[in-house]
Amino acid sequence: MTSIPQVPTARTAEPLEASAWNTAPYPALMVDDLGTVRLYNDAAKALIPRLRRGRPLSEAGIDWLDQGHRRRAAGPVDDAPLSGTIGDRDFEAHPSDHTDGTAVWWLVDDTDHRLARQALRTERQRSAFLGEASNALLSSLNLERCMDVTAELAAQHLADAALVITPRTGKRYPVVTCLRDGQPHSAIRLEDPEEVPGLAEALQGFPPVPSRWIDPASAPAWLEPEGFGPIGSIVVTPLPGHGVPAGALVLLRRDASAAFSSEEEVFARIFAARAGAAMSAARLYAEQSSLAHTLMQDLMPPVLRRLAGVEFAGGYRPSKNNERVGGDFYDVHPAADEAEASLAVLGDVCGKGLEAAVLTGKIRNTLHALLPLADDHQRMINLLNGALLSSHHTRFASLVLVSTLRKAGSVHLAVTSAGHPAPLVVRNDGTVEPVPSRGTVVGVLPNAAATTSRTALAPGEFCLLYTDGITEARGGPLGDEMFGEARLTEALSHCAGMPAEAVVEHVQMLASQWTGDRAHDDMAVMAIAAPRSHHLSAVDGHTRGRFTA
Amino acid sequence: MTLAPPLAPAPWIEQLWQSVTDGDEYAATGLVLRALDEGWEPESILLDLIAPVQGRVGEEWAANRFTVAQEHAATAINDRAIAALSHRTRTRPAGQPRRLAVACVDGEWHALPARLVAEVFRLRGWHVDYLGAQVPTHHLISHIHRTGPEAVALSSSIATHLPTAHAAITAVQATGTPVMVGGAAFGDRGQYAALLGADLWAPDARTAAARLHEGPLPRPASPHQPVDDLPHLSDQEYTLVTRTRPALVRTVMAGLAERFPPMRDYSRAQHDRTAEDIAHIVHFLATALYLDRADLFTGFLAWTARILDARGVPAHSLVPALDLLRAELKDFPRTTRMIDQATDHLTGAGPVHRTDTRNPA
After folding, report:
1. Taking CB atoms and an 8 Å cutoff, what residues of chain B touch A502?
2. What are the residue ranges spanned by the domains of chain B?
3. Assigned CATH topology for domain A15-109
4. DSSP letters spanning B70-133
5. What CATH topology corresponds to B96-229?
6. What is the pTM of this model?
7. Could A497 and B73 be called an inter-chain contact, meaning their C-beta atoms sit closer than 8 Å?
8. How far is Cα A52 from Cα A162, in angstroms, rounded to an integer?
9. Which tens digits make up the pLDDT trace of A106-132?
10. Which residues cross the membrane (chain B) (predicted)?
11. Chain A residue whose CA is closest to B176
């Protein structure tokens, strides 16, 4: 028991004690074990005018205190304070006991404390929400996903439903709708944003219109999410972007009386600022990556397939993992008709990365333009050499040209190497033969002389073109060895009769396992194979067995 | 819904196996298209005909009856059969299809399981982006930002890619995209998938498709770092072993040459092969350290011992290599514990664990 003042039991008490009791700053009242008010001080009387000495506490109209007192008198004594309201204030009632079952209740006004706690809780919830929102919004650079996340978070924390509307793409507005606890749904809308007061302005980045200005009755039907019911109140908030409006956030509540407080509106704007920043970053990223994608498209190595009865397969791995293009290239150009030879090219521009890739694009275009001369490799190389010498690039390139023509099951090759590693022919018995052809690189000397040699592939045999990124790959189990031609030759001798794409995949895998995580040069491989099967006639037309891999 | 194949699949599997091992793509594609004409569900052709044959390719390789080149050749034929089937069953998905990205972990060359998953989802009306083998995480993430798929399916067959897989899983989840994983690397019951925090592990494409049919996977929780999933990584043993891998291989090679003088007369091919075997051992050790799963290392050595046995090399020849490795890494408590456990197993002193995570099927 804590020390309590010696409470006077009657008006006959000493004047000093009585005055201390009566002038105490906290309201206090003494109630006996039967619930009868025995005594109260001036502050209690001022707070609870209906208090009467000798009358039951229940008549005072403070039910929570009366009930708490009875509970306490009936059960085990408990010193926990009670709490409840008196008038428009909140009170805590702290009991202190007298020996005969009488209790003195000290009333403490904690209205401000409670309000402060409530405000703290709200603020904590809001910063937790903003933290969660930032995490979710920052994680994606995809515009659709950012819209989904924005709608979902807003519907969960700010309103009963939320719509995210982004500026037009053409005449259409992408709209994402989300109901509380629901999944976001995206749709493309054709409706006029002018139909929603404030929406058109918000989409253009004007300051937001407070919710009271929007009459829910004037909202067009398309704004109302399916299954939502009548709209009580609406806020339209612009999503600010980097220089351009990112769109608008429309918050809907069902209950008209639950209109947005000014604090809530400000908070919605803080959220909108973050969502808008994330969405415009996503938009910029999408623009940049689509630009890069378009520019890169022509620099990417083509997907090779069977052409005029000859199998082609190619594989490419740029030196840097974060790039898709580099200084190696290959192409296969089909002949105008099947009686003429197709031309396969594989080459390596000095240098790496995007700059080298740009030059590969020029070389590939030049060779494409020279295709009418494809049966004269030396002439093609001379013209290409001239074109490279006269361009402002100081880079040079090595390449190998292979004309392929299928005749009666076997594939005839004319191979010309301009400073490039010799292609390797793999015979059906596993013999690996380098194709002898010598020439200088193009783009350095006024003359780029090269010799052409010819060979033929029997069904099942193939010819492998590769860049030195493969053979000069450093690594292996000991970490610093070069892969080398000997290992490549050894590996190929086990590949006799394999389909072209299996050969390419196998060589790529060996080289890439050899380098492991280490830095490496660009690596390009192409296999040209004479198909093994006699069913070839079934593959040229529209017969049932036809397919393209 | 998938119908059961109208005929017992066994003879079909046998025929496809024959065509695949003969390298006869025409027979293989012809068979697959005939199955289609005879009323097999395309999904069933993929999963009940092609997948078992591919599984057998992996088994043959794991049992050292196929070379890697043969495995590649057989896989290429199966791949063409899938392409033929895909060509015949191609339909434009109706409405706004759900979108999935399917990729192999960087370094992973076994693309066929991932391709089967991609084809199954495509047949079920999904918009599938199949990114193929060996996808750098960087490319995968920019693909996700560009296309915003509902989920990413990651495939890996070889357990040594699990640290890379973990980095990819964490990075994909950081974009708010859930990741499902599959493939032999994640363990026969997906036990490693859970360790790496994947949102879903599926033993096969059918299970994966059925799960996603029920509804989207929940969005992953807030971004985290790989070390949050695997707190033991803070002891740096994985990092140190991985960084010194070539040096460890060199030391073990030198030590072995001292103990076995005939090794000095090895041809380069023999020398390469021994170095590769040791590099594999160190690689699996590092992976086991990454996951803190000694059974992965022991399982790998048990498998290696069986292969050596098949080559006529006694399995206890691995023990000196482990001894040399242990001497080099004696200051690392987790590492030495794992090496000791594996040594006990090889010498018959410990319990047998058979976890074959190298099966590429």
Report:
1. 69, 72-73, 75-76
2. 1-90, 96-229, 232-346
3. Beta-Lactamase (3.30.450)
4. HHHHHHHHHHHHHHHHHHHT--PPPSS--EEEEEEETT----HHHHHHHHHHHHTT-EEEEEEE
5. Rossmann fold (3.40.50)
6. 0.82
7. yes
8. 56
9. 999 999 998 999 899 988 988 888 888
10. none
11. A139
